[in-house]
Structure formats: C-alpha cells, structure tokens
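A.,

Following up on our hallway conversation. Structure tokens first:
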C-alpha cells in the first residue's frame, strides 16, 4: 500500500513538472514577461545582465574581458539609468529594453572565469 501511494505521488510530481515545462510558452512565459516588464529596469534602458553586481566573484574579471564596445555600452546604460533614477524619470517607450535587445552578454564570460577559478583552486589544492 505504501509503495503504491509513493508511486502515485511520484507520478503526480512528474506530471506537474511536465505541465510546468510545457507552460513556459503559455501562462508561465507570460507571467515571466510581465515580471520582467514590471520590474522597471527595462524602462531605464538596462539589460538584465546590467543588474549583476560587480562585487560578486568573477564578475569584475569577466567585465574586464568583454570587448571594449560591449563594456562601453554597459557603462553608458548604467550611467543613463542612474541619471534617470535621480530625476525620477524613465526613457521614452521607444527606447525601453525589449526581449530582443535584452541579450546575455555577461554570464557566458562569468561562467568561463568561474571555471578558470575553480580549475586554479583544484590545481593549487593538488600541489
């Protein structure tokens, strides 16, 4: 009896997970899009990756490894957002960040840096 109850519970959990995976494009996708738009950073022209703190491990190094143009664009967006927030203003709607312009430019580099730091730590540990 206990085994059947546990199997039913697992089956229900798997069905729920599949439903959530399928609904990424439906309700969950719409909810995620609403949350990104409601957070306000897009109205300031920021990308999601602009919000990553430079003080976190590996982020400062990753930023320094970015191409000069990407780094300059990042600092411009941050400075403009800071000025807008001081004035308690937002950009015109035509200049807001969209799903198309909100790209992942920093996390791939952070992943590379973190892997290098982990490899270095393992190498130092072996010595």
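Then the amino acids I'd put at each of the 127 positions:
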């Amino acid at each position: 009896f206990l085994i059947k109850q546990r199997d039913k519970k697992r089956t229900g959990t798997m069905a729920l997970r599949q439903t959530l995976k399928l609904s990424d494009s439906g309700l969950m996708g719409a909810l995620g899009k609403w949350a990104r738009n409601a957070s306000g950073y897009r109205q300031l022209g920021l990308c999601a990756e602009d919000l990553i703190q430079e003080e976190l491990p590996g982020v400062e190094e990753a930023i320094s490894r970015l191409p000069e143009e990407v780094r300059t664009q990042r600092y411009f967006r941050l400075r403009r957002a800071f000025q807008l927030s001081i004035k308690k203003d937002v950009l015109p709607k035509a200049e807001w960040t969209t799903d198309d312009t909100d790209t992942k430019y920093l996390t791939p580099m952070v992943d590379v840096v973190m892997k290098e730091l982990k490899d270095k730590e393992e190498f130092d540990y072996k010595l």
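Residues 58 and 116 are 9 Å apart (CA to CA). Curious whether your intuition agrees with the design.

B.
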